[in-house]
Amino acid sequence: MKFLVVIKPEIVAHRVLAQVALWELRKSGVEIEQMRQMRIDGPLARRLYHQHKGKFFYDRLVRHISSGDVIAMRVSGNARQCIGSSRLWPRVVNQWDRQPMRQQLALSDVRNVAHASDADAAAQELKMFELL
Fold first, then answer.
1. Number of domains comprising the chain
2. How far is the C-alpha of 28 from the C-alpha of 67, rounded, in Å?
3. Cα–Cα 20 to 30 A to 61, which of 23, 39, 112, 116?
4. Kind and range of the H or E element at 74?
5. pTM for this prediction
């Protein structure tokens, strides 16, 4: 199955972090089939996060994802496992366990490295980004 992954502006703004994020995806077996750097405008950001409309963090999500360049990708493989839970600290972890990207690099609940589509939304989100 194909999925949308969007590396967020706080990572793309720092070339080394963007390279680390791409490396982590590839290392975990995720195949990057198509990739482009772009800027997400307000209307696209609102469509991407429509399922969160009305929640306390919706405006912050929209504002952040449109605050700078992102890397949008069509991928196959388990990107969500590599990226990790949107809950930054879902459990106490052993320092020697391999940590998902969000646990390694996230700055907050919104500045959390990447967006990865759910299986149910993947085709629609890929179409939004013209990555089908």
1. 1
2. 28
3. 23
4. strand 69-76
5. 0.86
